[in-house]
Amino acid sequence: MKWLIPPVLLVIVVAVMIALFRGLPEWRMLPEPFNYLIGLPLVAAGLGLAFAGSHRFRRANTNIHTFRRPDVLVTDGMFSISRNPMYLGFALALAGFAVKLNTPANLALMVLFVLVADLWYIRFEEKAAEEAFGDAYLRYRRRTRRWI
């Protein structure tokens, strides 16, 4: 299932969130317009963080594909605060979609995405980074948190 890269999973989860929004009863978390006032900035911040991380990888001329060997160990900028700012951005965006759509079940989908990212994607990437960069990656991992 190496075709199921994180952005593809993100799109799938958003599609399921929309389906739940349309298919579940009208029980909502927040009164309008608070769902928009909270949700949309979270979506924007999350996608901005993910795109900024992607841009940093492109500037470093390194591979961004989850299931390919990394070329360059990026540890500066936002990567000095979080080893996975792109996943953090996706999680924030999904939290924003859940709030904007105002369907409590969608928060569970966001949590599911975080678990899949943490247990599948990130573990795979960390192993690949350790194999590729050895002690440099281990030092980076000791000083920088996985999420925040």
From TrEMBL:
The keyword rRNA-binding does not apply. Gene3D superfamilies: 1.20.120.1630. One of its GO terms (molecular function) is methyltransferase activity. One of its GO terms (biological process) is methylation. It is found in: Endomembrane system. It is a multi-pass membrane protein. The chain crosses the membrane at residues 33-52, 73-99, 105-122. This is Isoprenylcysteine carboxylmethyltransferase family protein. It comes from Nitratireductor mangrovi.
